[in-house]
């Protein structure tokens, strides 16, 4: 199985970049994990929220094929504890999921095209975080999940 985190817009904060890179390096020992960052929409100030979401959807869909399992990181998605998320990843591996794509939308969320294409929605919290912070939280939780599956001492419960 391969995992991709697909997101809109670059991260400028050095501390977030360093944290993301730390966990990306750790993840390579467990799984093929790719972070794909789609550039922000240009001239978005001249667009309505709906137009911006539609343009972002077109860019996101270019990175998704028909066989991919697409999971939106969405505030209204299913919440998992870390052990449950590890189990979720394990089930996908057992079911021979080839490519699991997790998607972080732009500042206004997802266009209906993306909701229709998605196989599932997951929420990392009921709280709202910046899209850049979500990247760090997601790669850390993915690393934590694999350390749980391998019985390593990173996670304490």
TrEMBL record:
Question: What EC number(s) does this enzyme carry?
Answer: 2.1.1.177
HAMAP family assigned: 23SrRNA_methyltr_H
What SUPFAM superfamilies does the record point to? alpha/beta knot
- So where does S-adenosyl-L-methionine get bound? 73, 105, 124-129
Please describe the quaternary structure of this protein.
Homodimer.
Q: What does this protein do?
A: Specifically methylates the pseudouridine at position 1915 (m3Psi1915) in 23S rRNA.
The enzyme class is transferase
For this protein, what reaction is catalysed? pseudouridine(1915) in 23S rRNA + S-adenosyl-L-methionine = N(3)-methylpseudouridine(1915) in 23S rRNA + S-adenosyl-L-homocysteine + H(+)
Q: Which family does it belong to?
A: Belongs to the RNA methyltransferase RlmH family.
Compartment(s) where it occurs, according to its Swiss-Prot or TrEMBL record: Cytoplasm
- Keywords per UniProt: Cytoplasm, Methyltransferase, rRNA processing, S-adenosyl-L-methionine, Transferase
Q: Identify the InterPro entries for this entry.
A: Alpha/beta_knot_MTases (IPR029028), RlmH-like (IPR003742), tRNA_m1G_MTases_N (IPR029026)
Q: What is this protein's record name?
A: Ribosomal RNA large subunit methyltransferase H
| Highest taxon above the source species | Bacteria
| Keyword rRNA processing listed | yes
């Amino acid at each position: 199985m391969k995992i991709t985190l697909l997101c809109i817009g670059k991260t400028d904060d050095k501390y977030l970049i360093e944290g993301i890179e730390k966990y990306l390096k750790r993840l390579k020992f467990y799984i093929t994990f790719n972070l794909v960052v789609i550039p922000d929409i240009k001239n978005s100030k001249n667009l309505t929220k709906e137009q911006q979401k539609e343009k972002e959807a077109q860019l996101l869909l270019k990175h998704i094929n028909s066989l991919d399992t697409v999971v939106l990181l969405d505030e209204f998605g299913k919440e998992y504890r870390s052990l449950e998320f590890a189990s979720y990843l394990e089930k996908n591996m057992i079911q021979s999921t080839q490519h699991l794509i997790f998607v972080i939308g732009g500042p206004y969320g997802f266009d209906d095209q993306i909701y229709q294409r998605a196989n599932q929605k997951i929420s990392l919290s009921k709280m709202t975080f910046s899209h850049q912070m979500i990247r760090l939280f997601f790669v850390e939780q993915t690393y934590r999940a694999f350390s749980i599956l391998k019985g390593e001492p990173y996670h304490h419960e």
